[in-house]
Target: Class I SAM-dependent methyltransferase
Amino acid sequence: MNQNETQWDKLLKIKTTGRDDSHSDQYRNPYEPTPYMVLERLANSGLIRKNNTLIDYGTGKGRVCFYLSYQTRCKTIGVEYDERIYKGAADNKEVSVSASRTEFVLCSAENYEVPSEVDRCYFFNPFSVEILQSVLARIYESYYENPRDILLFFYYPSEEYISILMTQEQLIFYDEINTSDLFPGEDNREKILIFQVI
Model:
């Protein structure tokens, strides 16, 4: 693990490193936090600002929420279905420097009703395409009730995710943030794909 990972955890007063696949199955992927270098690039994109509210689906121990609310001053909501991992996020919230702009919800993503102020959504392959489709339906529902500029961020997207996203009538491809230079080797999945709800 590189120094950057532990330094940011220390600065934010949280514990989010490590991987946990104790509750993963064919529908839900293991807990694995997004590298801070990737989040740094996302924060610097200018696409998330203090007037935005971001949902992190499959938030795990809350790294995306704590980091982005600290760096961009946005509000964040972390949605997590695994009670044990959710407890890690709740414990982090007790002590984190950016806790006031962060909240966590213990709920499965497909059952979570998207609040009307949410206009940014983040995904790091948290679940299967079946669940993704249910989640997208929830996002569209919220959008139709309160039309607004909604951007969806997909880090390290799988082929299955990309093919689903490209066929959604309610989405258009917005932009891409390349992250491949942050890691050794040539990995064409190393990027954040951004889609806009229309």
